[in-house]
Every structure is written in C-alpha cells, then in structure tokens.
Amino acid sequence: MTASASATGLAIEALSVAYDKVEAVHGVSLQVAPGTIAAVIGANGAGKSTLLNAAMGLLPAAGTVRLDGRDLRRVPAEERVAAGLSLVSETRDLFSAMAVEDNLRLGAFRRGRSDLEESLEAVYARFPRLKERRRQAAGTLSGGERQMLAMGRALMSRPRVLMLDEPSLGLAPLIVREIFRIITALRADGVAILLVEQNARAALEVADTGHVMELGEITMSGPAAEIAADGRIIESYLGLGGSAGG
Ligand SMILES: Nc1ncnc2c1ncn2[C@@H]1O[C@H](COP(=O)(O)OP(=O)(O)OP(=O)(O)O)[C@@H](O)[C@H]1O
Prior knowledge:
Helices cover 37% and strands 25% of the residues.
C-alpha cells in the first residue's frame, strides 16, 4: 500500500495531442488533489475527451502525466489502471450480451479472488441497483443504469484518480442528481476526480476547482464557485437564469 503522505493525485503538465496535423489539445496543465473534484467544462469539440483519453494513455501525447508523483509517460493504458488511474468514457463501453456482474468482474484489474469479491461488494454497496440487476444483460439496462455500471466497473480497479467523461450525457435530471451524489461520495472517500462535462452547471456545483476549455486550451481556472459566478461563463455556458446555485 502506498503511504497516503505521498498521495498527490493527478498532475497533467503541458499536455498536447494532435490528430494527424491538427492539434486538438495545446499545452494543457491541471492538477487534481486527492479528495477533490476538478471540472473541465467547454463546448463540443473543445478537446475535453481528447484530454482524458491522452491522460489515460489511449492517445499519443506530448507532455507529462503524473499519478501520486509517478511519471506515467512510458506506462501503457492497462498499467495506468493498475497504477490507480481509471477512465469512464463518454461511450460507456460495456459488453451488452454479458451480465452486469460479469462486466464488473472484467474491471477488477489483476486482483486476487478474495480481493475481487470485496471490490464487488463495495461497488454493490455504492450502487444497490446494480446488485438487484446483477444477472441481467448489460444491454438491457437503462441509460442511467449503464452509466452506473460503467462507473462501477471503473471502481473495481480501486482507482485513486477517476476520470469521468460526460457522466450526465443523455440522462434525466433525477438520474443526473444520483450520479453526481455518487461522485461526491467518492470524493469523500479520498478519490481525486477529474470530471469533464457539458452540463457546466451541474459540474461546477459539485466541483472544487473549475477549468474552462476552449479550442484545445484552458482559458480559465479557479475555484468552481468563482467560475460559476463569472459573467462570461454564465453567458456562454450556464445559460439564462444566472448562477449555478439555483
Ligand atoms: N479520432 C479523431 N481524428 C481526428 N480528429 C479528431 C478525432 N477525435 C477528435 N478529433 C477532433 O479533436 C477536437 C476535439 O475533440 P474532443 O472530442 O476531444 O472534444 P470534446 O470537447 O470532448 O467534445 P464533445 O463534448 O463533443 O465530445 C475536435 O475538433 C474533433 O473533431
């Protein structure tokens, strides 16, 4: 077990990603401390998903990604999972024909059997609805349940840093609230959370820090409450009706 004194969370430094010759992410730096939520908001195509996929090691990138101080530059994606980094992608890729529980088991990266059962019980405690549906095929779940399963699977590897790409996408407001409640519970357990969202209002309400991403760059960073109160942000991302407190 790593000493918690060395737990510094996620540090991304000068990350750049290009698709062919087009740079989608330019020199992005941000940190996420353990037990905090950092939200990245921005319009379609701003580069948010590219940023997370590169941090996970799924895309080649320039720059540095550190997990609790460890440089992950030469570490492939599956070893990043073993190191404590996990990503729930926007597409919530699940094995549709497989049962909920089998999808969860696949997330238990290199775990021994007793460890795996313990992780499974911990996920079921967080998502009782998944336990009720554990024998059901993943493809028959509702959108909200699918998001829960994608999150539950990521938690099976017991990440210290969890990256979430648009967890609220396509979900009804009540389910969104439930998903965000679970995200704040994970923060309370000490997980560092990097949350990418187009639902800027919901994201800034739960986040500690906020970053605005525009055309591949971070154009504003600060305490989430300050970002949510900024006139330009309200106009561009939060719509009419003002602050994120309402
Ligand atoms: N596989 C790819 N090949 C070429 N260009 C890509 C590829 N994936 C993304 N891009 C481009 O990179 C830019 C950033 O895309 P990205 O998906 O990271 O944005 P985003 O902020 O996550 O948007 P959204 O919220 O719509 O998912 C866009 O201009 C997009 O067209």
